[in-house]
# Entry
Amino acid sequence: MLNILYSFALALVLALFGTPLFVRLLVKKSFGQFIRQDGPTAHYIKRGTPTMGGVVIITAALVAYFGADLILGHPPRLAGLLVLFLFVGMGTVGFIDDFIKISRQRSLGLRPVWKFVGQGAVGVTFALLAINFPNRDGWTPASFKVSFLRDTSIDLAFAGRTLGTVLFVIWANFLITAWTNAVNLTDGLDGLATGASAMVFMAYVIVALWGISNLCDSASATHCYVMSDPLDVAMVAAAITGACLGFLWWNVHPAAIFMGDTGALALGGAYAGLSIVTRTEVLGAIIGGLFVVIAASDIIQIGWFKISGGKRVFKMAPLHHHFELSGWGEVTIVIRFWLIAALFAAVGLGLFYAEWVVAR
# Structure
């Protein structure tokens, strides 16, 4: 368990003390946030605030994970490395997007087609690697079966491995796209996405810890969990949690730096990866329920606007902007949404544990 503690502590310290150094660098380079003109007017004062803070989160988590491995002489395992691959890969796409926005001073970065290509390349590579290369116990990081609290009876390889691989790639990339967009939409107020992310990644530390304690001895064992390299998965989740908390110190209102698409896409990718390798793909929608609600509010707004010929459900989407225009203070919204995020995470963990108790 020292591996997990070291990962968390190193990431926390690196992000906490590394963020102000990165802020100075961004200010020197004049890399400031571009604020959309159709958003809440209170956000205009945020124009020019340094962005791309996701670089700090990614760097701190990577150094912490590999640093803990080095200190304790623990070789990295595939499941953890694959989640980090998604984390860094999606963060790279976000970094390019952020850089274009800043350098050209516009609200649109990468063209949608290129963002789709970049995310697709990372997602497909992850999916193909995750469904192959079993560990010493014969388990691959991912499974052809759709999972809730564990693998269900819904098998994507029902008609053979080839079709199963195609269906799994599609399913995995749906999850990756959904989570990256959900976290990105949530990143609209100071500290909102960062604080909520810290909660859901901590929840996955607990899920992975439970997997370590109750890992199946063989594929035929019952009342246990089939996870590939759960210790490494817990280390990755702990490192990202620590990085988020360290960064949050500087990201709360009034934010000294924003995570940008660099951080939002990286965190969304990592979250999708964790849900896949822990065999809790559907449960992830409950643990990360705040992200789901905020993404749903945007979908509802756009859908109803088109169906009704220009009418709106919310004053503005995503949901947190609706409350801003309703007169709620930014800090009030963030704190209340954090409470909702914590409640969703607690319910998700409760379901995970309850299934274990009932099955005994």
User: Anything to note?
Assistant: Strands lie at 145-147, 151-155. The chain has twelve helices and two strands. Residues 330-359 form the longest helix (30 residues). The CA atoms of residues 98 and 275 lie 26 Å apart.
